Each structure stands twice: as structure tokens, then as C-alpha cells.
Amino acid sequence: MKNQQKSKNxxxxxSIAIYPGSFDPVTNGHIDIVERGLRLFDRIIVCVMCNAAKxxxxxxxxxxxxxxxxxxKFPNVEADTYDGxxxxxxxxxxxxxxxxxxxxxxxxxxxxxxAMMNRRLNRNIQTVFLMTGFRWIFTSSSIIKEAxxxxxxxxxxxxxxxxxxxxxxxxxxxxx
Length: 176
Ligand code: PNS
Prior knowledge:
Blueprint: E1 16-21, H1 28-37, E2 43-49, H2 60-70, E3 77-82, H3 86-92, E4 97-102, H4 108-121, E5 126-131, H5 141-149, H6 160-170
The chain binds 4'-phosphopantetheine.
Residues 20-22, 49-51, 54, 85-86, 114, 117-118 line the site of 4'-phosphopantetheine.
């Protein structure tokens, strides 16, 4: 479905949210946020972007492929990448919102700073925070990668395609 298309139910323009992040790799916590976001928006674009403060384990192409596979059952979720300002991408895709997950108070300062900067740069795109399910409150791509690197079993924290890729990078988890 193209982004300008009318939604089926009420004749309004499709409501689009960009869900930006490093997604290195996508986790069950990210999937939970998208599922919640789909209750608010017609379409969610999961956009792999550059965080200048991070070095990544997976290439952009690998990260997109993992996102596409993880959301293959969701026709209104799309994976993309953009090498530039998030708000510029949002404007180009006619998004009305930037979607971000909030796990704990510790996320707040970083998220608040980003949201304020994005609002300064483009006042037409609102940042919407959703709280992850309680199950995912302690997970992050970084902590999952660290556990996997040292042989920890992260099979219930990531989609199967990500588990396979982590096993390829680090070898299979050590037996319990
Ligand atoms: O998953 P992350 O690493 O917390 O995501 C951060 C990300 C990629 C969303 C952020 O670094 C970003 O928006 N990068 C794109 C460049 C940009 O627009 N920066 C200004 C907003 S602070």
C-alpha cells in the first residue's frame, strides 16, 4: 500500500509512524512496540538509522533483512533505512509521528533530548512513546548481544531469524 493511500475504514489519509533505531539487532521488545503502535497507526515504517555513538555488529543490509523476516506476517509494517536526519525522512514519508519505546526511567533523559531536538527541527512530527510489555523491560539489543557473545541463551528474547544470525556470529549458546 502506498503512503498517500486512504485507509479503508474512515476515508482519512493513512496515518504513518516512523519507528527509528539502530536495531542491531531487532528484538522481541521492538516487536512488542510495533504491535502496540499498530493499534494507533495504519502503517509503521521501521527505519534503520545511524546512531553516531554506536558501532554495530550487523550491517545495515543484515539488519533490514532481519526486520523484514520478523515482520513478514504484518502487511502494514515496512523496513527501510535512511542515512540522514530522522525528521527529514519522516517528512519525506509523510509520517505524523516518530514512535519510540520507553522501558524504564533510565531511558527518559536520552529519549527526552532526542524528542526535543526532533521537535526543534520539525514541529509537524510528534514523538509518541509507548511502554514495552513488562517482559521486555530489561532487554536491549546491547545486553542481548553481550549475553550471546559469551554463550548465553537468548532464544526467548529475539525472533528466530535473529537467533540464527547471532549463532552464526558467536556460535551456539553453551549447554546449561
Ligand atoms: O536505537 P537507537 O540507537 O537508540 O536509535 C537512535 C536513532 C538512530 C533513532 C538516532 O540516533 C537518530 O535519530 N539518528 C538519525 C540522525 C538524527 O536525526 N539525529 C537527530 C535526532 S537526535
